Amino acid sequence: MQGFQNHFLIAMPALDDPMFKRSVTYVCEHNADGAMGIVVNHPLNVKVADLLEQLEIAYDAKSPVAGRNVCAGGPVQSDRGFVLHTAKAGYHSSMDLENGLMVTTSKDILIDLTTDRAPDKFILALGYAGWTAGQLEQEIIDNSWLVIPAENHIIFDLTHAEKWQSATATIGIKPWQLTNEAGHA
User: 124 and 70 in contact (C-beta within 8 Å)?
Assistant: First the structure.
């Protein structure tokens, strides 16, 4: 089985599901049981400060982080926060990923987000994208996704609006060159 962990799934133009249209999804885990990823470019109309306030977590309102948008990470457990971040040990519920990344779901990371204890770079998302065994592979065969190796700078250093086009550009493709037709038999 081809593993897609530490890859981006770039939504093809024909994928018109509102959750995934023009999305870039970072694949955190992929194995024989299925896959889990976080959409990194669909901002919600919710700021980090709004979410922390709703959870009754103290935060620094002057921190630039407080004004960042929370992302819609996917349709599964959309009421639960997932922090995709550069490696920083010490949180209660973290999963080590590849390429110096971690995903953390515990409250202790939320307490740190607007402080100098926060990970260097992070995205806070509500929910995640999940696929059952073989489902992601079938969606790729059906031409729903373009799969490329993930690059941290696309996740953290670009605006949400730039990520979809920039991800395709890493392999020399412009979005207008993508077709709805699959190129296999």
Answer: yes
CA 96 to the chain's CA centroid: 15
In angstroms, the CA 85 to CA 175 distance is 27
Residue 40 near residue 71 (C-beta atoms within 8 A)? yes
Q: From first to last of the 185 residues of the chain, give the pLDDT tens digit.
A: 458 999 999 999 888 898 999 999 999 999 999 999 999 999 999 999 999 999 999 999 999 999 999 999 999 999 999 999 999 888 888 999 998 999 999 899 999 999 999 999 999 999 999 999 999 999 999 999 999 999 999 999 999 999 998 998 888 876 655 655 555 44
Residue 44 one-letter amino acid: L
Structure-token match 């949400």, residue found: 160
Q: In the block, which residue shows the tokens 């994928």?
A: 15
Query: 112-137 burial by CB neighbour count: b if 16+ within 10 A, else e?
Result: bbbeeebbebbbbbbbbbbbeeeebb
Torsion of CA 105, 106, 111, 116, to 10 degrees: -70
Half-sphere exposure (Cβ direction) of 180: Cα atoms closer than 13 Å: 4
Check if the beta carbon of residue 152 is closer than 8 Å to that of residue 40. no
| pTM beyond cutoff 0.70 | yes
Least Cα distance to 133 among 2, 37, 32, 65 occurs for 32
**Which residue's entry shows tokens 């919710």?**
46
